[in-house]
Amino acid sequence: MAIRNSGWTISAVNSNGWPCQLTCIRQVDVTTLPDGSEQVRQLSLQIRDTRGVVLRPKSTGVYVNDFEAVTYWSVDVHAP
Question: Residue 79: its pLDDT value, please?
Fold first, then answer.
């Protein structure tokens, strides 16, 4: 059993019309099975804005900062 972290950025536009980059951080648990293959289980996925605030996923490609009432939209193919 091992924990792996990965991160990437996606392009988005906020509800004020400004383009920005959002950061995606995924943490998975990887278990090596007896046949040598790996079983991967996602533990967490966070989407953060440019200041590091964690956003709430509303749907695929749509994220919300509930404290500031800002919505972000992304059509990036890597958007979760």
Answer: 79
Specify whether the CB–CB gap between 65 and 53 falls below 8 A. yes
Q: Which two tokens stand for residue 17?
A: 């019309």
**Chain centre distance of CA 33:** 27
pLDDT at 77: 79
Helices (DSSP H) in the chain: which residue ranges?
none
Residue 35 has pLDDT above 90, yes or no: yes
- Cα separation of 56 and 59, whole Å? 9
Token pair, residue 61, equals 């490609």
Three-class DSSP category at 28: strand
